[in-house]
Amino acid sequence: MNVLSVDQATKIYGNKVKVRAVDHLSLSVMEGEFVAIMGPSGSGKSTFLNLISGILPLTSGEIRIGEEDISRLKEEEAARFRRDKLGFVFQDYNLVDTLTIGENIMLPLMFQQKDPGSMRKEAHICAEKLGIDAVFDSRTYEVSGGQAQRAAIARAIIHHPKLLLADEPTGNLDSASAEQVMRMFAALNTEEHVSSIVVTHDPRTASFCGRVVFIRDGKVFHELYREDNQLQFYDEILGVLKFLGGA
Ligand SMILES: Nc1ncnc2c1ncn2[C@@H]1O[C@H](COP(=O)(O)OP(=O)(O)OP(=O)(O)O)[C@@H](O)[C@H]1O
Asked: Which ranges carry the ABC transporter domain (predicted)?
C-alpha cells in the first residue's frame, strides 16, 4: 500500500513572473519506505515537502497520503491532518526553549488530551528509544545538537504519524552527530516501520535511506535503490550528483 501517491503535482509561484517550482512531478512511496530527496539548490525540494504536508496549495495535480487526498482538504482540515497524521523534523530542531526536552517530546500528545501520567510514560519510552532519556528533564540549551535533533525526532513520532517528513535533519550537525541521528531514522524504519522522507544535500545522510529520488527543475530526474552495501550506495549517489551539479 502506498503511504504517498503524488500524481502530476505542479506548483507555480507568482502572478506576473511565474516560477514553475514543481512541474508535473509524480512519485509513489510505499508504507515502510525510507526515501531521500536530493537535488540542486532551487530544484523544488522544499516546495515539494510543503505540498506533501498541505502547507502550500497545488496549482494542479493530486497528492494522497494513505487514503486522504490532501489537495482537497480545506485549510483547517489540512492543519488537523498535519498535526495528527504527519511528523516533522527540521534542520534547526524547532524545540520550544521554555520547555524541557521531555515536555517537548510530549507536545503532540497534549492535543490528544491524554492524562499527564500516561503522556510522561510514553515520552520516556520514546526518549529511551532515541537514547536521550538521560536528558529528559534538561532544558533545550543544556543538550548537544545531536541530542536536540533526537528529541525533535521523538516529538515527531510519538503520535505514530503515517509519514515522517524531515527537511535537512543533519544540516546543523557535525558528522558524528549526523551519523547517530541517521542511525536513529534507519532504526525507526527497520524496527518500527516508520515511513520517512528526508530532504538532504548530504550524500552521506542520503546513503542511510533505501531509495534516493533526485529532483531537477521540479521534476524527478533519477532514482536509486540501495542494495545491502551503504558505502557502494554512497558512491552511486555521488555519481548522480556529479551529473546533476550544484548539489
Ligand atoms: N514563495 C516563493 N515565491 C516565488 N518563488 C519561489 C518561492 N519559494 C520558492 N520559489 C522558487 O521556486 C524554486 C524552487 O525553490 P525551492 O525552495 O523549493 O527549492 P529547493 O530545492 O528547496 O532549494 P534549496 O536546496 O536551496 O532549499 C526556486 O526557483 C525558488 O526561487
From this structure: 4-242
**Ligand 1 lined by 199 (C-beta under 6 Å):** no
Going from the Cα of 21 to the center of ligand 1, the distance in angstroms, rounded, reads 6
Which amino acid residue places its CA nearest to atom 11 of ligand 1? 21
Answer yes or no: is the C-beta of 15 below 6 A from any ligand 1 atom. no
**How many domains does one find in the chain?**
1
- If you take atom 18 of ligand 1, which residue's CA is the nearest one? 44
3-class DSSP string for the chain = CEEEEEEEEEEEECCCCCEEEEEEEEEEEECCCEEEEECCCCCCHHHHHHHHCCCCCCCEEEEEECCEEHHHCCHHHHHHHHHHHEEEECCCCCCCCCCEHHHHHHHHHHCCCCCHHHHHHHHHHHHHHCCCHHHCCCEHHHCCHHHHHHHHHHHHHCCCCCEEEEECCCCCCCHHHHHHHHHHHHHHHHHHCCCEEEECCCHHHHCCCCEEEEEECCEEEEEEECCCCHHHHHHHHHHHHHHHCCC
ipTM of the predicted assembly exceeds 0.90:
yes
Q: What is the CATH number of the domain that holds 37?
A: 3.40.50.300
Whether 44 lines ligand 1, by a CB cut-off of 6 Å, is yes
Give the domain range for residue 161: 2-244
Model confidence over 173-219: pLDDT tens digits? Answer: 999 999 999 999 999 999 989 999 999 999 999 999 999 999 999 99
pLDDT tens track for 68-111? 999 889 989 999 999 999 999 999 999 999 999 999 999 999 88
Any atom of ligand 1 within 6 Å of the Cβ of 200: no
